[in-house]
Amino acid sequence: MQKIRSIIVEDEQDNRLNLKVMLQSYCPNIEVVAEAENVAEGLKTIRQYQPELVFLDVEMPDGSGFDLLARVGKPDFRVIFVTAYSQYAIKAIKFNAMDYILKPIDISELCLAVDKVSHNMKNNDSIELIQNLLGNIQHRDLQSRRIPLASADSLRMVELSQVVRLQGENNYTRFFLADGTNILVSKTLKDYDSMLESNDFIRVHQSHIVNLSFVKSFIKTDGGYLVMEDGSEVGVSRAKKQDLLDRLYGG
DSSP secondary structure string, 163-182? Predict the structure, then answer.
């Protein structure tokens, strides 16, 4: 078994030891080659050991895990974030299709994250994913962000301002873009519903999320449906109708 060279960057010694023991016991393909307790030491350790995977604490005394990644330059390693509950941090991480585990660490969640990273090690997209994450953190405005969309054969970074609508297809979601193209992604519409909570995106049906910026008109007949700028028509469920009207006409 080829082991994945890894380091742990975490400010609490007990937490580092606990994670290392869990990895040794349950994730035999992970080799922890070094540890660091803060951003400055983590940067030095990464440069020295050139890891393939970093278990990275989000909050540390001298900065955040995001600060560390920004200082690395072009990080060519995978990251699994380790964090106590932080709504903003977790939303940013999930939005960028990256992996995280919550403290206190659950063994099944740890194994799941490691297994996912192990299967994606050959994909040469770590630099792009991390740089996209850092760029999005700097832009609190959701529409100015880019979202990574991984199809069967590619990873494409798409500006949210170019997403017209999303359509759920069982365990997949199809993104329809302003340029007329569409991308099928192996995530459910529910996953994106929580990511895209903003003033511009709204779920109007069990199978549809729309970008309000691309709504051309609301037709009241036939139960109600939207006509989008690209000419597509999107049905509106009875349960979502009032919320949609409030958003369209300001309550």
Answer: EEEEEEETTEEEEEETTS-E
**pLDDT tens digits along 142-161:** 556 888 898 777 788 899 99
Decide: pTM greater than 0.90. Answer: no
Helix, coil or strand: residue 130: helix
Question: Residue 205, SS3?
Answer: strand
Residue that is written with structure tokens 């994909």 in the block? 123
Q: How confident is the model at residue 141 (pLDDT cuts 50, 70, 90)?
A: low
Q: Calculate ∠ Cα 245-247-251, nearest 5°.
A: 75
| DSSP string computed for 3-27 | PEEEEEE-S-HHHHHHHHHHHHHH-
Phi, psi of 197, deg, nearest 5? -60, 110
Tell me, rounded to whole angstroms, the distance of Cα 197 from its chain centroid: 14
3-state secondary structure (DSSP) of residue 38: coil
Rounded Cα gap, residues 214 and 162, in angstroms: 9
How many angstroms separate the CA atoms of 204 and 190, rounded?
12
